[in-house]
Amino acid sequence: MKVLVLNAGSSSLKYQLINMADNHVLAEGLVERIGQSVGKLKYKTTEKYEEERPFPNHETALVRVSELLQDEKMGVIKDANEIEACGHRTVHGGEEFNHSILIDDAVLSTMKKCIPLAPLHNPANITGIEVAASIFPKAKHVGVFDTAFHQSMPAKAYKYAIPAKFYEEDHIRRYGFHGTSHLFVSREAATMLGKEQKDVNVITVHIGNGASIAAVKGGKSIDTTMGMTPLAGLVMGTRCGDIDPAIPYFLCKNKDLTIDEVDQILNKESGMYGLTGNSDLRDIEDKFIAGDAVCTEAMEIYAYSIKKAVGSYFAALGTVDAIVFTAGVGENSDIVRKMVCSDMSGLGIEIDESKNEGRKTNNIEVSSESSRVKIFVIPTNEELEIANQTIEVLKNL
Ligand code: AMP
Asked: Does the predicted TM-score (pTM) go above 0.70?
């Protein structure tokens, strides 16, 4: 069976066509700048192809992707009907969706009710689903939610100590994100430990441009660092993570900023970018290695925010079998992994510096022989997880 995984953003469309018989990626790519005067399409099979032209909307973008997939020279399928299912990455499923689901009209209208919780992301995701359903009408369409994996959190982890009516009336609570990634790497970790998922406790550290950590007990998320929105928790590329909640009020009152300007500052101009003027950790690391004082302090702030969250999830889980590093920084930065795991032997965490060295493209253990807790680097694969969940949903119909 071939599954097309789609991730529709407000002006972009990421896609991957996977042959589920062997998990082989037949084609993948991205359409960017949808709706602007000139858009860009990237298409990769064994060869790479790019084109620049206007893509007025998501429909024109996906129609072109579909043409390329069936193209005589560059195509990987003969007929669109070979795509039996589409798995749609959807950011916010609220409390409505605790698992992936076959999309029908009722599901779509429930998804629309979740728009207030993710006003930037969910409308684009829904557009992607509607467009794909019209272009691939014979395929089954499955929604896979970033929030679903964290729906197992207990109330003590997801409720905020604000007036109860805001939860009851407006659904303000912790939801958590990156669920497909936390689920994927925690399952891989259980395999690496040679145990079943129900028998292991894992702390999954997903650090990319966005970053979150989850405490996963017996295969279920019991806490995570992101909150109602992806702004909470760790220091990120451009997002501030946890700060004193009174700071937005202070900025509006004393700096004459509007609440929209503060929102922009905390989401797009904070985090590593706010501290150093650069959000790309590769550049910050280069300056850190060269002894730059600003970047050294920023790296310490960054690693310390991760270290504190790992420590708190030890308390939440009681016992921990493994810590997993994943995503752009987690997989590639031996410096960050070392900074996070240093001076943690009291918790049974000891990294092996030589095993840790370098970028990792395969699952690997980087803890020392004597470390009570295993430290793994596991490349995440959210597309494969979405495709697997799509298949699971279809199996259970
Ligand atoms: P992601 O959002 O998972 O794609 O991760 C993007 C982040 O990973 C960016 O901040 C990159 O700078 C970071 N990253 C990618 N490669 C490296 C590397 N070799 N060393 C440090 N950070 C990296």
From this structure: yes
